Amino acid sequence: MCGIIGFVGNGNLKKVVLDGLAELEYRGYDSSGIAIYHDDEIRTYRAVGKLENLRKKTKDIEPIGKGIAIGHTRWATHGKPTELNAHPHSAEFSSVVHNGIIENYAVLKKELEADGVVFSSQTDTEVIVHLFEKNYKSQKNVFDAFKKTIATLEGAFAILLITKDDPENIYFAKMGSPLVVGVGENENFFASSDAPLVGLVKEAIYLHDGEYGIVGNSSIAIYNKETLIQPQKKSLPANKIYAQKEGYRFFMEKEIYEQSVVINDTIMGRIKNEQVVLEELENVDFNNISRIKLCACGTSYHAALVASYISERIAKMPTNVEIASEFRYKNPLMRKDELFIVISQSGETADTLEALKMAKKAGMKTIAICNVDNSSIVREADATVLTRAGIEKGVASTKAFATQIMTLWLMIIFAAQRNNTLTKEEHAKEISAIRRSYKALEVTQGLHEKTKRLSKRYLHGHGFFFIGRDIFYPLALEGALKLKEISYLHAEGYPAGEMKHGPIALADTELFTIALLSKHVLYDKTKSNIEELSARDSTILTISSKPFEITDDIILIDDYEHYMLEFFAMLVAIQLLSIEVAIRLGNDVDMPRNLAKSVTVE
After folding, report:
1. Of 15, 57, 233, 597, catalytic
2. pLDDT at 423 over 80
3. In the chain, what is the straight-line distance between the N-terminal and C-terminal CA atoms, in Å?
4. pLDDT in the model for residue 506
5. CATH 3.40.50.10490: which residues of the chain?
6. Helix ranges (DSSP H) in 420-560
7. How far, CA to CA in Å, does 128 sit from each of 34, 161, 196, 214?
8. Could you give the CA distance from residue 357 to residue 355 in angstroms, rounded to a whole number?
9. Is position 2 annotated as part of the catalytic site?
């Protein structure tokens, strides 16, 4: 989740931008950079790794006075995390920072290269600044050139551009990626969220898709299409922690809402020409791999279970899943023709790390799926695919799980492409579903209000059953875990078809059943399992896209054409239900008792 900062005004330009970037570190990044216009020059500084490296690189400059500055923290999508690929990107007399993805960058780059433009990076972003300068040479007007540039771009973007030919203004555009204007007195700011603006300004303008314009130290002009609009200013909170929560009651609540945004970060740069492209795995030799072994703990284990279903269905690859803490002590059979994949949010999970070391020692090819670059697991594995969830402050995982699922799904399609196990039509359906997955993860006001109302009915029974079939069984496990973690109520996840093999003995009015009823996967079978529990008077809440007359309560999700979109929509519903039950019980949702974010002990 890249971060953007911009400043136009009078002061210590470097300090304002670096301090702003520091407030965005929680979003996650692998490189950073700033561009400052001061003393009739644009100076650009970039560094790989932590922001401290950029501070060291700029320690000898103190640009104080009137000027403009832009800054960026990057999470690599197009091109590796190198200094050349870090933002800002510059041309002859302009610099730009950008969040998002320019989907038609390859076409634009080819056209620019034909005009003699030489690119210095592997990024999609660099085309913006070169295209702008090309347009400026014909338009002879900075604003007209900027408008023509953004009109040519396809994809998602938040853009800040500065140019020596207008040293008093920052040009901006928003489409799909967040961008906020901080309104000050004789100074104005930009940021990816309002957190860096707290303490600097009292009001902010939250830009909408399609808006663009010019900001100076005492002027703000925002356009939609060709119309100059009057933006709505909103007051900022005074407390920085509250600002980081962006108005949500808990970080976990904020992270549930963020899932529809970060899932696009996971996908960015990994679908090109309707094919899954994973540059991270280019050097992994997949020859002679006959099986996949997935290994993880907790929520990551549930993600692995989901992947095992998809892998055998799509990639036709035998796949089994191991709990890392058990795997280490069972004297496991480890074969060199097996691909060993470990999954960890933090990259420091002790049991998973030790299992990875065992696999390496046995000569197995290893891949890590992780959210934290340079973590122990990432350093140990042969290759890593980062989930790009950004920092997750809530102890109970939400967006990390969603991005793990997406990363695994992409990897499985990547393998299917190599093995030719999907027809052209099947492959197109998978790619289409991936592109629309963010919609299934959006939290609507109606859904959240529904879970708030339902939560008061599901507080005082003797336990919960979460049930589902196929991939909805591991989702049931995750739903039960989430509720346990933050509400401290007893909950279990079960395959719906297993209820009659013992657990149904617990069914009565005080047993709460959360039933995940997929339209596309074993609908009639699952419906029969729910009816069995209903006949024993269990109190049932069904989550489905189809009405179900015998259920006590129902959360209706949208009618999706792909089972994975149903999965993501149901995931949001069970997360919201869990957090609302926990809040109603008065629990600290972000810091549940006895739990830690990174489990570094056995």
Report:
1. 597
2. yes
3. 31
4. 86
5. 251-435, 445-584
6. 424-440, 445-455, 472-487, 523-535
7. 17, 9, 25, 17
8. 5
9. yes
